[in-house]
Design a protein that fits this description.
Layout: H1 2-14, H2 17-27, H3 46-60, H4 66-86, E1 88-94, H5 106-116, E2 120-125, E3 128-129, H6 132-143, E4 147-152, H7 166-173, E5 178-182, E6 198-201, E7 205-209, E8 213-214, H8 215-219, E9 223-229, H9 232-246, E10 250-252
Parallel strand pairs: 2-4, 3-8, 4-5
Antiparallel strand pairs: 1-9, 2-6, 5-10, 6-7, 7-9
Length: 253
């Protein structure tokens, strides 16, 4: 049974719901995956044809009717569609672009996330400087009542690794935000760094990026990331960051 479930799931990922429905309509009433089903023309790519072959091979090893297999396919396709509605993932890129793939820039995505925050905003970056557009957006968020928290790497004077004081810089730039540093660095994290670059708005939108909050990263570097809207990942990220506060791993300064 596991083989056919895997094959059904793979096919549902590779094909649109309309193509899945076309396959399912041919399966209904069939007792076995015979040649008369002629499903090859429904799929258009080599990977989908291979997945269809895996499905028919796995089906032959069961006693399932075509009606049941059709129902499995429709259920898998519906689940995939529902997950796409509930959780969207978007590719984010800063650096050289091409005319073949549409992308959104790091700065654009981060500004949009900040502007969409209604209750809470949590940003994590190794350093933060030379980002006037982000500073304006953060201050606008706090002005409209958004609880804003920012975690950055601590200066050496506070047990961190930075020769500059990013905390003081951010305190002047975003005075209404709560600033955090990593205080508790037990073994094996003694020489660790705040190297994560993430942001989460409320518990609904999360941004993961290779880019620090710097003008260089926003304008000149080749940086990549993903934006996750909905689903459990933003909730888990927010919960984890708050757990770090509650356990005093990170503390306000």
């Amino acid at each position: 049974m596991e083989l056919i479930l895997d094959a059904v799931a793979e096919l549902a990922v590779l094909l649109s719901p309309l193509r899945i429905e076309a396959i399912a309509s041919r399966l209904r009433g069939a007792s076995s995956p015979g040649r008369e089903l002629n499903l090859e023309h429904v799929v258009g790519t080599p990977s989908a044809r291979e997945a269809l072959k895996s499905l028919t091979t796995a089906w032959q090893k069961t006693a399932l009717s075509g009606e049941i297999v059709a129902g499995m396919l429709m259920g898998a396709a519906h689940t995939r569609l529902q997950m796409q509605r509930d959780c969207g993932v978007e590719f984010v890129w800063t650096g050289p672009t091409t005319p073949f793939v549409a992308t959104r820039r790091t700065e654009q995505v981060l500004l949009d996330l900040i502007q969409r925050a209604k209750r809470e905003l949590f940003i994590v970056s190794f350093v933060a400087y030379d980002i006037p557009s982000v500073i304006v957006a953060i201050n606008a968020a706090t002005d409209r009542g958004v609880n804003t928290r920012i975690l950055v790497e601590a200066p050496r004077t506070h047990g961190g690794s930075l020769g500059v004081d990013a905390v003081s810089t951010m305190r002047k730039a975003v005075p209404s935000s709560i600033l955090y540093i990593w205080i508790d660095r037990p073994h094996p994290f003694t020489d660790g760094r705040v190297h994560a670059k993430v942001a989460v708005a409320d518990d609904t939108i999360a941004f993961f990026s290779s880019a620090n909050l710097t003008g260089h990263a926003f304008e000149k570097n080749m940086e990549a990331g993903i934006l996750v809207s909905g689903g459990h990942i933003p909730k888990n990220l927010r919960a984890h960051l708050h757990a770090l506060i509650e356990t005093r791993v990170i503390q306000p300064v």
